[in-house]
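USER: Study each token:
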Amino acid sequence: MAVYDAIVVGTGQAGPTLASRLAVAGMKVAVIERGKFGGTCVNTGCIPTKAMVASAYAAQLARRGAEYGVEIGAPVRVDLARVQARKSAILAESRDGLEHWLKGMENCTVYQGHARFEGPHELSVGGEQLSAGRIFLNVGGRAIVPDMPGVRDVPFLNNSSVMNLNVLPRHLIVIGGSYIGLEFGQMFRRFGSEVTIVEMGPRLIGREDEDVSDAVEGILRNEGIEVRLNAKCIRLSKSGENVCAGVDCTNGSPEVEGSHVLLATGRRPNTDDLGLEKAGVATDKHGYITVDDELRTNVPGIWALGDCNGKGGFTHTAYNDYEIVAANLLDGDSRRVSDRITAYALYIDPPLGRAGMTDREVRASGRKALVGMRPMTRVGRAVEKGETQGFMKITVDADSKQILGAAVLGPGGDEVIHCVLDLMYAKSPYTVMQRAMHIHPTVAELLPTILGELKPLN
């Protein structure tokens, strides 16, 4: 049996950097990867999807060229093979660089195979037995195949396989009106597909406030995307060479027929084939590994980081998991999951940047709150760019004057939101930003203005 000081299972966002920190600290480290190096972000998530989003943005901008006084001279056509080639090159550079870094790392041995527990501190991988006093699980997640009638009777796509299509769908049906579904829906509409998004709930991205959901729906409909809401009984069937989705919506045809169907209905953790029961590691009813505020499992010497612990589900939360574990284990610095503020983005165009609480959550908390809002039609930078869809809003605590939450739906929203987020981490009153001088012309320069126009949150 090979004995190590630490074993890291999985090479997603948290694992490799943690392995490096442990190895630099003098520990003998093993890293285990069963598939492609880099996990979801590098292979099927952030990097490839945002590369394709960039191609879709370029196509849309080209179509709008005449609005800016630019004549293209021919109909805009997207070469999906070249889009795929660009995406694949970016992905490969990131993945290969990570693999070479890990395999060349001092004090680190890389094993390629499926890791399974044989005991609380023993793992098997590819016929070899490994043990360590510290084991870090960074095993990620995968797309859910929903239990809906007919789903096994039709060919379907998920977030991974849809990026490898070599033929542009004539009509893409997207099942699921949340973040992944909306990004792919807009992307393929801009590539030239007809797109229908089917959502069981009464509105898109249901965790957001209604004003955000409504604005996002409007943006998608403006590009010719059909949105079907209240689809309470979704069912799939074949219709010749096509796929038929029964939706039973209150309005519109009860069925939608398309050439392809994308399932974008959520994800599940990769914890069902790790042998966790042999180690005694506890999971919740959804399969997520239960952890405390420092990401320790119920078994001493085992930690869980990233998507498999149910504490975030984003690349940036996974990386923060690494920072929390490293700080507590190596730096003598107490850091906790509960210290972080909710923050994420939706990468449609224009993007949505979000930080902190929604207005719905603020109301439920019983706080006395103030809110300020400004449409992008009244933001000079957005007008200059010809990108005036969306709005910004900030909600603050009326008593403490601290910012509770914010949404920026508009050009650069995924970047602008950090002005708000950093002030929230500083626990400073909103008046600090209100008195700040921002650069003109920018979208962020209107944040102080918004904070000078606050009104009671209804």
